[in-house]
Design a protein that fits this description.
One of its GO terms (molecular function) is diguanylate cyclase activity. It catalyses: 2 GTP = 3',3'-c-di-GMP + 2 diphosphate. One of its GO terms (biological process) is phosphorelay signal transduction system. The protein is an alpha/beta fold. Helix content is about 45%, strand content about 20%. The chain is built from ten helices and ten strands. Strands 2-1-3-4-5 form a five-stranded parallel sheet, with helices on both faces. It has a five-stranded mixed sheet with strand order 7-8-6-9-10, with helices on both faces. The longest helix is centred in the middle third of the chain and has 26 residues. About 35% of the residues are buried. The structure holds 3'-deoxy-guanosine-5'-triphosphate and magnesium ion (3 copies).
């Protein structure tokens, strides 16, 4: 879940000479993207991996820096990218306006190279720290996969998207079979290690970047499969069952098999079999999980 990427700065100015001057100061320490027009700036700002900082000119012919800042701060994808205005507009009200639009800092031209470097470094450090905290808040500490908070957020997003595009959406609820006797006999430390191994195995199964595997609670996991019908969902559930079996983790106290297994509950929202809301879909997957347990565990059910 943790990804490494070079720290990137997007420089936006209609004058290439200004871009070169800023880039010369910063290119030793950061990856530099550049744009001389507003449309291009908005496109680059929203393109993953997102820039970590934007240096933004104000006076530009087609779309001015204020407009660009306003749009970036009002778009979900780009709103947390810090923006520093770098501008010849030196009046107090210009600076106030820029900061009120949500800019992190304001530098007037002509600038001091050392001050630009220092202000950029401060904003980058703050941004990287915020990113790390955000990641920690969304990741499960034991298994290092997304946690329930992240799962709930993604499910809400996917449900909102589905209301627009009318696609199907599937949900899986997964529970380790007879995990209480596993803990009781092998100890809590071994139980934790088992959870880590199962989590990593499950996490590696889905192939689409929009699929999400999360630790939902104690020994329960949940999977979101956007734009996936019942057939695709059943296939994926089978691959999850196989992935856990392939771990071949000994469990001499399971009533199902002499190794660790899971049960999977499946629910699919589609235009012809709709659920009322995301909560109802979750309840559907929960009831299906109960079915899978009742049918003997180590299987998937609707
Ligand atoms: P079933 O097949 O019906 O799911 O049986 P089960 O024994 O797995 O079900 P139950 O819900 O009774 O047990 C879940 C157990 O998971 C209880 C608890 O000891 C264990 N557990 C939950 N969270 C953790 C954890 O973070 N670490 C460890 N080691 N164990 C956990
Ligand atoms: Mg300009
Ligand atoms: Mg359970
Ligand atoms: Mg269980």
């Amino acid at each position: 879940m943790l990804e490494e990427k070079p720290t990137t700065i997007l420089i936006v100015d209609d004058q290439p000479t200004n871009i070169h001057a800023l880039a010369a100061l910063l290119k030793k320490d950061y990856r530099i993207l550049t744009a001389t027009r507003g449309e291009k700036a908005l496109e680059l700002a929203a393109q993953p991996p997102l820039p970590d900082l934007i240096l933004l000119d104000i006076v530009m012919p087609d779309m001015d820096g204020h407009e660009i800042c306003f749009r970036l701060k009002n778009a979900e994808a780009t709103k947390s990218i810090p923006i520093i205005f770098v501008t010849a507009l030196g009046e107090e009200q210009d600076e106030e306006h820029g900061l009120n639009l949500g800019a992190a800092d304001y530098i007037t031209k002509p600038f001091s190279p050392a001050i630009v470097r220092a202000r950029v470094r401060n904003q980058i450090n703050l941004k990287l720290r915020t990113d790390r905290l955000e990641q920690v808040a969304m990741q499960d500490g034991l298994t290092q996969i997304p946690n329930r908070r992240y799962f709930d957020q993604k499910l809400t997003e996917e449900w909102t998207r589905l209301l627009r595009n009318g696609q199907s959406l599937s949900l899986l609820m997964i529970d380790i079979d007879h995990f209480k006797p596993y803990n009781d006999h092998y100890g809590h430390g071994a139980g934790d290690e088992c959870l880590r191994r199962v989590a990593q195995a499950l996490y590696q199964v889905p192939q689409r970047p929009t699929d999400l595997v999360a630790r939902y609670g104690g020994e329960e996991f949940a999977v979101i499969l956007p734009e996936t019908d019942r057939l695709g969902t059943a296939h994926l559930a089978q691959r999850l069952l196989d992935a856990v079996r392939a771990l071949a983790l000994e469990h001499a106290y399971s009533e199902v098999a002499p190794q660790v297994t899971i049960s999977v509950g499946m629910a699919t929202h589609s235009p012809d079999q709709p659920y009322y809301d995301a909560e109802a879909l979750k309840q559907g997957a929960d009831q299906a999980l109960y079915q899978a347990k009742a049918r003997g565990r180590n299987c998937a059910a609707w």
